[in-house]
Amino acid sequence: MCNVCGCGQGETRIDGQEHDPPHVHDAHTHVHAHENLHADGAVHSHAHGRAHSHTHSGHDHVHDALHAADMPHAYDHPLGGDLHYGLGPARAHAPGLSQARMVRIEQDILAKNNAYAAANRKRFAEHGIFAVNLVSSPGSGKTTLLVKTIEALRGEVPMAVIEGDQQTSMDADRIRATGVAAVQVNTGRGCHLDAHMVGHAVERLHPAEDSLLFIENVGNLVCPAGFDLGEAHKVVILSVTEGEDKPLKYPDMFHAAGLMLLNKMDLLPHLAFDTARCVEYARRINPRLEVIELSAVSGQGMQAWLAWLTAGLERARLARQQNVDLLKRRIAELEAQLAAKS
Amino acid sequence: MHEMSLAEGVLQIIEEAARTQGFSRVREVRLEVGQLAGVEVEALRFCLDAVLRGSLAEDARLEVEHTPGAGWCMLCGMTVPIAAYYDPCPRCGGHQVTPTAGMQMRVKDLLVE
User: Fold this and answer.
1) How far is B34 from B47, CA to CA, in rounded Å?
2) B5-51: per-residue pLDDT in tens?
3) B61 and which of A53, A54, A256, B28 could share a cystine (Cβ 3.0–4.6 Å)?
4) Of B4, B106, B109, which is closest to A103 when you measure between CB atoms?
């Protein structure tokens, strides 16, 4: 007899195989049970999870697919007389049968990345590190800008670089040629850096106290927008060779960024790029977006960018100092308390 | 294709829940994806299909609940519906709208055994 429902004759084979007609279970997995009392007085109960159909001599019915949790399991049998016991959330009544149940999760899909990002951010704060996440499409001039930035600030502030690319260490090599420490992260097929990768890269780099950390993300104007790395700001770089409507085409990134650098401004005379319109589009997406127009090649606007960086670094340094002062005061208070008691 | 990373995130959440809640099979996964979350649901389905293969949630049914986007219009001083970040306020046409809802993507619940 059928060892699933105990009802019929014939051999039972599970795994999608057929029982002897007239009783067919298509499904081999069993989530819920119900008991049918047929008009002819025969009772069978079975549990099922997936689509199945079976045929009885008296009537035919088909259950398709898994029922939604709140969906009553009801079927109008032509001959009537069915008794369904499986209307509860698990739709099962027979002891020993597997029970389907709902498990509440309510968890953000990015929660894990966000937790790593928070850890990175805490680490940066403790060390007075001003971390910026440079994002753009490929070919916007990120690495050239970074090299020029490093050359301008070298000797003034300590710096370190995390380079993200799908393949090669070419960019990290370019950075290392400037004398600044760089770690290359190859994401392989990955389209963005995530906070976990950055955490590991930071462990390798050991950026100095009160330093600038540049994280050059994979050239991609889409995916890096959703992945917090623990940076103070995302800086989106848009070159004027790309088209002024990019902020509208890739809104997520411009929404996530705190600063937009309009790069390759030296090429503007040769292009039909409308700078004002581009900025207007970008601020539609993000009204608080700061904008600096610059050219890494001609040096135009570089001072504003360097000033933005050093101001950010100063804020990070001050925050760390305040934190240290706070801790020192706390230690002094506790020591005073201890001295009073001893 | 960061939907692949998101799909892997979903699997991680499921596997962690399986450890803490003690189940071995997932029949249905219910996700909540906001209109402003920047997730292409069809791409996510495609990736989940690949990522969940061979896992405890292989062949699980995927239910996606869409939550509408909303934002606070600074000019109107009220919450207004928006379908995208760059949408103007439907009342005043201004762009001073800060998104307040529909940015989330979450695993809501699982039907398990």
Assistant:
1) 18
2) 899 999 999 999 999 999 999 999 999 999 988 888 888 999 999 99
3) B28
4) B109
Query: Structure pTM?
Result: 0.72
A31 bridge partner residues: none
The residue type at A94: A
Place of tokens 């039972």: A12
| A102 and B CB contact within 8 Å | yes
Q: How far apart are CA B95 and CA B67, in angstroms?
A: 21
**CB of A149 within 8 A of CB of A230?**
no
CA–CA separation, B17 vs A25, rounded Å?
A: 31
Collect all residues with Cβ–Cβ distance below 8 Å to B31 and sequence separation of at least 6. Answer: A109, B10, B44, B62, B63, B64, B65, B105, B106, B107, B108
Give chain A positions within 8 Å (CB) of B104.
108
Say whether B2 and A192 touch across the interface (CB within 8 A).
yes
Long-range Cβ pairs for the range B77-80 (8 Å, 24+):
none
Strand partners, B32: B65, B106
